[in-house]
Structure formats: structure tokens, C-alpha cells
Amino acid sequence: MNRWNLPDLGVGVGLRTVHFAHILREHPAVDWFEVLSENFMQMGGRPMYVLDQVAERYPVALHGVSLSIGSTEPLDEGYLRQLKGLARRTRATWVSDHLCWTGVLGRNTHDLLPMPYTEEALRHVVSRVRQVSDYLERPLVLENPSSYVEFADSTMPEWEFLARMAEDANCALLLDVNNVYVSAFNHSFDPNVYVDALPADRVVQYHLAGHTHRGTHIIDTHSDHAVHPVWELYARSCRRTGNVATLYEWDENIPAFDVLLAEANKARAFRVESGAAARVPAAAAR
Amino acid sequence: MSLPLERLQRWMQSVVVHPGTVEDAVADPSVEADVPKDRVGEVILPSAHLAPLERLEIYHAMYPLRMEEALASDYTALKHFLGDQGFFRLVEGYVQAHPSRSFTLNPLGRHLPEYLAGAHVKKRAFCQDLARLERAIAEVFEDEERPALDEQAIAAVPAEAWEHARLRTIPAFRLLALRYPASAYLDSVNDEAHRHPEVKRQDGWVAVYRRGYAVYRHDLGRAAHDLLTDLVAGRTVGEAVAAAMRRRGRARPQADDLFRWFRQWAAAGMFASVELP
Questions:
Q1: A35, A16 in Cβ contact below 8 A?
Q2: Which residue in the set A45, A149, A215 is minimally distant from B56, CB to CB?
Q3: d(CA B111, CA A209)
Q4: Where are the domains of chain A?
Q5: CATH fold for domain B145-275
Q6: Which CATH fold would you assign to the domain A11-284?
Q7: Where are the domains of chain B?
Q8: Do B44 and A152 touch (CB under 8 A)?
């Protein structure tokens, strides 16, 4: 159990526009939905109507891409105000974003750009996480990014940065095991070392997804089924954290809802049962 | 080469959003002010397979694709008309002039209709009309939902009060005067057969609005458009009608038009309220 007693929401999927009609009509048997925060801010039309309906029926967590917690720009107060309002309106179980920066000089690249893992960056991020958590009146949940560059300035590995950040800022972690796999290939580290190094009692959510292997590097595209090593990594981490809310992300070439849900439900086979060690069933692996 | 976080982020962003190649980006004098191009290897490490510049290129290449994807979702018909390459070139120039400064990509395309006035695209005036129409559709999709004025509320207004009444439209409502058949072109893009209208000068007027979470277009004549424009501007029903009857030619409604229009517009749910003096 995590240190905040945040609930294990079970296995969920992301709420995406292409599935709106299906979800409202069929009320599919999914444990919870993750909602991309920015897609519902400043929106008064059908998206908000759908979200209200979904939040009535299912647990919801907010997941953002524009908090830009690592940016040297000041935090956007207007953004935080709207985020807090959306969290209240949807009764979100928690609010998450990424360990990254998205822009400076007033510009938003809408990319999750990587941080250098330095003492300066750590102090900067910890200070901002505390500000955001105080404002939101709940522990912020931060996700490990996938990345394609490493900075020469970095003085510690990403997993050490995350662990120290979580401890110093008292925040929770969203562990994206696909991101760990992607970055491990791109930066030639052992993904097992990564997941074993994170503080298990701070992990409140998992992300699973597919990616695109380009030979020389892997891009985190959320465009496919998850590969077998990602499921193995998930199972390994579940043995440390116990059962934690798990979410399958699919954002490109989004399939029919039933296909998405079937992929997400594979996670059930890997979750820990009555304290028994999780294993990787061959049938679930591709 | 050790960089403070602020300088590192400024440099990396300048490279990522640069309109040229990644080689052009790191050699740009404004970018080199933070990191000389021959020292990039001291900032970005190589991977087992890629050199530092090749790793940066991953972010640099994804930036315009992400912008294009966001704009294409709002400007489907414009992209269809310009073709993939033509639209991508337009986006590359546009995001340099109007980069995203919002936490969401939704408003990214709001300046595209004006930007097109100076852009090098075929049939530029038609493109502007098409972009204005698609922008209006995107905006009303997101606007606040407000219940429409119902028949009972309209019937409750005493006949003698209408002259001084002001009709307020729902927030999700836009009026457009077009010089080209943009609305017909949009229909033809949505139609599988793609039987496009000829792109030649042809005035048209259209109301774009949302009702029941669906977006509608209502073709108008010049007289109806001008009357609605006056109502949207806050003139009383009496003032707007009097102004309409003073117009000449196509801009002047026929005597029996007015009652029919008001009934159609109210039934379509274009009005949110009626204010009485």
C-alpha cells in the first residue's frame, strides 16, 4: 500500500474522443478512466458533457502534459487554477503530470522535454512540486518520462533523481514501465535496476503502452500493443509495489474500444494475487 | 560544457522549434549564443547508435509534425484543398509567426485565417474563407453550452414588447459573410465522392451554431445575415427590422420573410434569451 492510502483503482484506459459515443452508450466494464487534463480545460461543449457523464459513473484521475514542472519559467497560475477546478468537478482521485519541461520564453512546444539530472535541477523541481502540491491541496503525482537525449551535465541516473525528488518534495510517482523500457534502450541502461530503485510506497499508478522501434532508437508513440519485456517489467514492479492502479495508453492509430480494453485487461494477469508473485503468462505476451 | 538550467532550456527549445534543419538550428547565431555548434557534443551525449545531433533531431523533427496534427484537426478542408505538402509548408511558416503560448493546442489555429492573407498559397482568398469557416466550427464546438430560448418563453413576450426587445444569441453562434463557396467545399470534403464546387467568386452568408452538442451550418441570404448581425450587435428587434427595411436590393427582406426567419432561427435554437426594456 502506498503511503497516502490512495486506492488501487484497478485497470483503466484513457478517455479519448473517438470512444465518447461508445462509452456513453455501452457503459463498458472498465474500472476507471484517466483524463487528459488540458483537453477539458476551457471547454464548454460536448467534451465537458461527456466527462461529466463519465465522472458520474467511473472513478477518474487527471493526467496533464502542460504543467511543465521542470521549466525555468514561473508556474502558470491560471493553468493551476483551472486544473484545481477540473479536479474538483470530476472528483479526481489524483492529479498527475510528467517530470519534464514543455517550454520557456512564453512558448509551449507541447513536447515532454527532458531534464538534466543535476543538483540544480533537483532543487528547482522539488521547490515547484511543493508549490503545486500545496496549491492543489493533494500530493502531486509525477510520471517518469521517455527521452531521446542525455545531458552531459547529469550527475545522477534518472531513477535516483526521481527517488530523491519524491522524497524531498513528498510527491507520488506514476511509473510508466513502457517509458522505462524506451529510455533504457535509448540510453543503454538496465530497466530492472530502474524499477527496483524507485520507492515502492510512493508509486500510486502505472502506465502501460506500445512504442515504435526505429532500430537506432525507440519512440514512445502509444500506437500499439505493449511488448513482452514491458509486461515483464510491469510484473517485476508489481511484486514490489503490490497492486496499484494501472492504465493502458493508446493515442495513435487508436483501435476500437473493445480492442483497447482487451489490451488493458491483460494487466490483470500480471497483478499480484493474495501476495503471490506475479508471473508473465505466455498467452498475454506478444 | 556546464550550462545553468535556464540557458540549457533556452538553447534546446531554440533548436527544437527552429524552422530549418537541425544543422541549421545549432549554427544559427542566436542559438550559438548559448552553445557554439562545435560544442554540442559537450552538452548532449551520444547514444550507442546516434550522435548528439541525431538525438536532438528526434525532438526537432517531431515539433512541426505535432503542430501540423493539431492544426489539421481544425482545418481538415483547408488541408484537403492545399494537399499534405502545401498544408505542411503553411503550418511551418504559421507556427513561427504564431507559436503556441497556451497550455492547450486548441487555440493554436486562431490566427490562421488572418495569417493566410500574407501566405503564399494557391487561391488565397478562398483559403481564407475556408479557414474562417473551419475556425468558426472549431470555436462553437468548444463554446459554453447554454439552453436555447423555448417556444413558451417566446410566446410569453407581449406582441407590443417585441419592438424594444433584444434577442441574445447562444454563445456557440457565429455569423460569416463569405466571398467564395467555402461552405459547399466543406460539404464536398465530408462527402466521400469529393465532388468539389468550382472555386470562383460567389458571395455567401452562413450561421454556424451548436445545438445538442452537434455543430450546424445554416445558409442565409444577404438580408437575413445583415439582420442577424444587427441583432448580435445588440440592436433592438425594432431597430434591426427598421434598418433591414431601409436597405436596397438583396440586402432588403421581403415583407413575409421576417416572421418566417425569426421562427426558423428560434426553432434552430440560435437564441438564448430575450431582454425586455
A1: no
A2: A149
A3: 35
A4: 11-284
A5: Outer Surface Protein A; domain 3 (3.90.930)
A6: TIM Barrel (3.20.20)
A7: 5-122, 145-275
A8: yes
Pairing of strands A60-63, B173-178: unpaired
Yes or no, beta carbons of B17 and A66 under 8 Å apart: no
Q: What are phi and psi of A218, to 5 degrees?
A: -115, 135
Angle made by CA atoms A164, A167, A169, in degrees to the nearest 5: 100
By CB atoms closer than 10 A (0-12, 13-18, 19+), residue A109 is buried
* β-bridge pairing B204-211 and A95-98: unpaired
Contact (Cβ atoms closer than 8 angstroms) between residue B15 and residue B56: yes
Rounded distance between C-alpha atoms, residue B264 and residue B219, angstroms: 12
* Distance to chain B for A274, nearest Cα, Å: 42
ipTM: 0.94
CB-neighbour burial class of residue B110 (10 A; exposed 0-12, middle 13-18, buried 19+): middle
CB < 8 Å from A in window 72-111 of B:
99-106
**Residue recorded with cell 521547490:** A127
Give A279's pLDDT tier (boundaries 50, 70, 90).
very low
Cell numbers that stand for A124 in this block:
528547482
B213 chain-A contacts, CB cut-off 8 A: 45-46, 49
Chain A hits for B16, Cβ within 8 Å: 109, 111, 113
Verify whether the Cβ–Cβ distance B104 to A116 is below 8 Å.
Answer: no
Using an 8 Å Cβ cutoff, are A217 and A187 in contact? no
How many beta-carbon pairs below 8 A join chains A and B? 125
Owner of C-alpha cell 531513477: A159
pLDDT value, residue A26: 97
Does A103 contact chain B (CB < 8 Å)? Answer: yes
Q: How far apart are CA B55 and CA A218, in angstroms?
A: 11
- What pLDDT was estimated at residue A273? 64
> What is the pTM (predicted TM-score) of this model?
0.92
Cα–Cα distance measured from residue A173 to residue A96, given in angstroms and rounded to the nearest whole number: 8
Best mutation target among A82, A101, A148, A221 (most B Cβ atoms within 10 Å) is: A148
Residues B197-223 have pLDDT tens digits of: 999 999 999 999 999 888 999 999 999
Backbone angles phi and psi of B269, in degrees to 5: 85, 25
On whether the CB atoms of residues B78 and B127 are closer than 8 A, the answer is yes
Compute the distance between CA of residue A173 and CA of residue A165 in angstroms, rounded to an integer.
10
Instruction: Count other C-beta atoms under 10 Å from residue A47's C-beta.
Output: 18
